[in-house]
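Hypothesis: this fold can be encoded by more than one sequence.
Test: take the structure tokens below, design a sequence, compare later.
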């Protein structure tokens, strides 16, 4: 599993006898130096599909689950993003399945799930994640496909079990981040036809045939995940498509930003025109009687959707007198992706700080099944405990992605 990653470089030195007038002469010889060429090594992608008993219903017949997974893995392969793609089943064990995507998908059936081995009973998501993280090193991406349902088993305190699972997930993720601090996590929720047994929190089973949610976890270095999403965007998913997405990386991270010229009644400081405003005044045109200015920002390094980045509730201002709105930046060659617009009824001096906060989206609470007794349409028992565990690991030292500071003289 562990790939040995080497940087391959070649330095070619040609020693030529004296001729012509180019090059550097040394003792009658001309030495031409060719710069070192660094060959980028493509990442390895390891795919783990949970094959516990609760997953059987997703692979009975032809389902959106199979279509989505088949198409996603195929897109990864043909995009030439990855150096190699390895397939596994996972429950209490990791079970290698080669690298033939077509053959792998064709064999996704309940009977095949059963004969592959491992414990298919109660599901311990914390241990599942720990196994995946243990096998994921630098320049590798792990993709975990799971229904995300906790199965404490009969006679256990379900509430305490969920809390302990959350703590375990936080611990496992925090340990991984110590080794690979530039890592990130993306979690997609999708829907598929499900025809099989639903196992509740007491491990009792209920026969159902309906649409059920499942999840794709993607774990790896932030730059690699950004590149993967660029080459295989969320819009390319087959089946019912992505219903919700959660992503997180560690902060704070410096971003490029600059005050937008002409976005208000002010001058820019000649020494620091990107970050310092001088002579800020209220608008005198039309009906406006407010102070305003805009800041262009490059948020491309974050694994965040436009929906997240344009929601003012995901930002924190140090001056409550300012109102903040966000929109996409006008496309040009500057590289800025978004525009932050500030407006206030009065003139202020000093530092205006705005932080892009690390937050769990509201949909996580909305799709969480808090009882786990019977299947609830579109919801998953205990999913919020998993995402909160991940969130807590990434926000141990701070809870914001970046901070932008504008000085008003």
């Amino acid at each position: 599993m562990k790939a040995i990653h080497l940087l391959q470089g070649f330095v070619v030195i040609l020693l030529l006898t004296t001729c012509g007038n180019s090059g550097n002469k040394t003792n009658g010889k001309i030495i031409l130096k060719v710069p070192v060429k660094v060959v980028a090594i493509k990442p390895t992608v390891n795919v783990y599909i949970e094959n516990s008993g609760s997953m059987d219903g997703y692979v009975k017949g032809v389902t959106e689950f199979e279509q989505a997974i088949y198409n996603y893995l195929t897109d990864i392969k043909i995009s030439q993003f990855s150096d190699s793609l390895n397939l596994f089943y996972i429950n209490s064990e990791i079970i290698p399945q080669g690298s033939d995507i077509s053959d792998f998908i064709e064999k996704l059936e309940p009977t095949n799930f059963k004969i592959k081995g491992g414990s298919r009973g109660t599901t311990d998501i914390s241990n599942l994640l720990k196994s995946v993280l243990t096998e994921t090193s630098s320049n590798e991406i792990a993709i975990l496909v799971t229904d995300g349902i906790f199965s404490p088993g009969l006679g256990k305190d379900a509430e305490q079990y969920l809390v302990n699972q959350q703590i375990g997930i936080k611990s496992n993720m925090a340990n991984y981040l110590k080794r690979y601090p530039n890592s990130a996590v993306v979690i997609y929720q999708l829907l598929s036809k499900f025809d099989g047994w639903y196992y509740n929190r007491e491990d009792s089973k209920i026969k159902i045939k309906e649409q059920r949610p499942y999840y794709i976890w993607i774990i790896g270095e932030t730059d690699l995940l950004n590149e993967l999403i660029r080459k295989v965007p969320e819009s390319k998913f087959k089946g019912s498509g992505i219903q919700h997405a959660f992503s997180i990386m560690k902060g704070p991270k410096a971003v490029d930003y600059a005050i937008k010229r002409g976005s208000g009644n002010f001058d820019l400081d000649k020494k620091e025109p990107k970050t310092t405003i001088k002579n800020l005044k209220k608008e005198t045109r039309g009906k406006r009687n407010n102070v305003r200015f805009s800041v262009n920002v490059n948020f491309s390094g974050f694994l965040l959707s436009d929906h997240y980045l344009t929601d003012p509730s995901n930002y924190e201002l140090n001056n409550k007198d300012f109102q903040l709105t966000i929109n996409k930046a006008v496309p040009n060659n500057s590289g800025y992706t978004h525009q932050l617009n500030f407006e206030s009824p009065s003139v202020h001096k000093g530092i205006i700080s705005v932080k892009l906060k690390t937050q769990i989206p509201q949909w996580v609470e909305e799709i969480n099944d808090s009882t786990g007794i019977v299947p609830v349409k579109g919801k998953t028992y205990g999913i919020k405990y998993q995402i909160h565990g991940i969130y807590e690991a990434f926000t141990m030292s701070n809870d914001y992605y970046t901070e932008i500071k504008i000085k008003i003289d």
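The radius of gyration is 26 Å. The longest helix spans residues 158-179.
Hypothesis status: open.
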